Amino acid sequence: MTILPVIPTSPDTPDAVTTRRRVTMPPRHLADLDLAGRQAAVTKLGLPAFRAKQLSTHYFGRLVRDPEAMTDLPAATRDQLAGDLLPTLLTPQREMACDDGATRKTLWRLHDGAMVESVLMGYPDRITACVSSQAGCGMACPFCATGQAGLTRNLSIAEIVDQVVYLAGVAASGAVTGSPPRLSRVVFMGMGEPLANYPRVLEAVRRLTAPAPEGLGLSQRHITVSTVGLVPAMRRLIAEKLSVTLALSLHAPDDDLRDELVPVNQRWKVAEVLDAAFDYAAQTGRRISIEYAMIRDVNDQPWRADLLGKLLRGKLAHVNLIPLNPTPGSKWDASPKPVEREFVRRLREAGVSTTVRDTRGQEIDGACGQLAASELTAVDAGGSAADAEVAR
């Protein structure tokens, strides 16, 4: 494990306890706006509209987030634009690397003291960013560190996008050895339930996939949006006619267990959630990713593999089994490897495409929310994000 240099918190950073209880969205950033919106903002400052394209080219095309590095802009103009369209949204608190530098995790402090995490994962043929869409999460899944922390607030469009632009810059620097120097995939599998922050996540996807300089120019097919099964939002996503991949965090094929593991199942049952997922696959032609955390003696029984196989047989779906990364003090543990292999065998025997997710980041509190939880505990032994107001 390698601990990377950390940018220290400014002395005037607001107190974490206070800000978690006073939910405020961050100042406007250029990534909150489409190109026309940026042009309107620039002209309102009394500057020519082409400055918006210049600024956008720096941010999305060259991955420059620091206004001081935009040296082709006059100093006075640079200061003016920075103050209005490039506020600091994310301040790194801790940056850690493992897997010989192929996995890099960043813990961010937001303007109000809330904490979020993002991860960069390098492979021989690609680099993937895993980003957060909320500070905390309101879904209350008991085996998830983020779910147990509760929801602080939704992230803004720009807070989501800025994570990706930063990580794309890390990739472009060549810091992830053995991988191509271009970020090519983004997964919304960090902190939060993306579809509970639907409008902002959707606009973030549009920024990430719009061609430069309006956006980052990623392929929609290389974006994955996960959900625990918010059926109305899933059906709303179908109507958008995007080609992003939908990942459904199922974790149990039967309602009795899923009611416990994924409490939102008490509102939308397995059959209804899968129906919405299959309709998304039919509309988009994109295979659904079924995420299934393998939890020892909880959801890893052979009969549950058989039931899952029956539910998915003949469907445009792929099962991604996830060896659980236990959180400190948790009663939950990963399934033994022989149990995992039998689960895989039964699913494949049923004709269901199945893989086991590569286990990464265990040295750096890789499970989503672990790093934020440890940092918040260190700075605030007496409070938690669950005490915060919820901004929807």
UniProtKB/TrEMBL annotation:
Active site: 117 (proton acceptor), 368 (s-methylcysteine intermediate)
Binding site for S-adenosyl-L-methionine: 192-193, 226, 249-251, 325
Principal cellular location given in the protein's record: cytoplasm
One matching Pfam family: Radical_SAM
CDD domains, per database record: Radical_SAM (cd01335)
Cofactor descriptive note: Binds 1 [4Fe-4S] cluster. The cluster is coordinated with 3 cysteines and an exchangeable S-adenosyl-L-methionine.
Compartments (UniProt record): Cytoplasm
Entry-linked SUPFAM superfamilies: Radical SAM enzymes
Residues holding [4Fe-4S] cluster: 137, 141, 144
PROSITE patterns, sorted: RADICAL_SAM
Domain Radical SAM core per the UniProt entry, residue ranges: 123-363
Recorded superkingdom: Bacteria
An individual GO BP term: methylation
Gene3D superfamilies: 1.10.150.530, Aldolase class I
Cross-referenced InterPro entries: Aldolase_TIM, Elp3/MiaA/NifB-like_rSAM, Methyltransferase_A, RNA_MTrfase_RlmN, rRNA_lsu_MTrfase_RlmN/Cfr, rSAM, rSAM_sf
GO molecular function: methyltransferase activity
Cofactor(s) essential for the protein: [4Fe-4S] cluster
Catalytic activity: adenosine(2503) in 23S rRNA + 2 reduced [2Fe-2S]-[ferredoxin] + 2 S-adenosyl-L-methionine = 2-methyladenosine(2503) in 23S rRNA + 5'-deoxyadenosine + L-methionine + 2 oxidized [2Fe-2S]-[ferredoxin] + S-adenosyl-L-homocysteine; adenosine(37) in tRNA + 2 reduced [2Fe-2S]-[ferredoxin] + 2 S-adenosyl-L-methionine = 2-methyladenosine(37) in tRNA + 5'-deoxyadenosine + L-methionine + 2 oxidized [2Fe-2S]-[ferredoxin] + S-adenosyl-L-homocysteine
Enzyme Commission number(s) from the entry: 2.1.1.192
UniProt keyword annotations, A-Z: 4Fe-4S, Cytoplasm, Disulfide bond, Iron, Iron-sulfur, Metal-binding, Methyltransferase, rRNA processing, S-adenosyl-L-methionine, Transferase, tRNA processing
Note: Reaction proceeds by a ping-pong mechanism involving intermediate methylation of a conserved cysteine residue.
Purpose of the protein: Specifically methylates position 2 of adenine 2503 in 23S rRNA and position 2 of adenine 37 in tRNAs.
Family membership noted in the UniProt record: Belongs to the radical SAM superfamily. RlmN family.
Protein name in UniProt: Probable dual-specificity RNA methyltransferase RlmN
Name of the encoding gene: rlmN
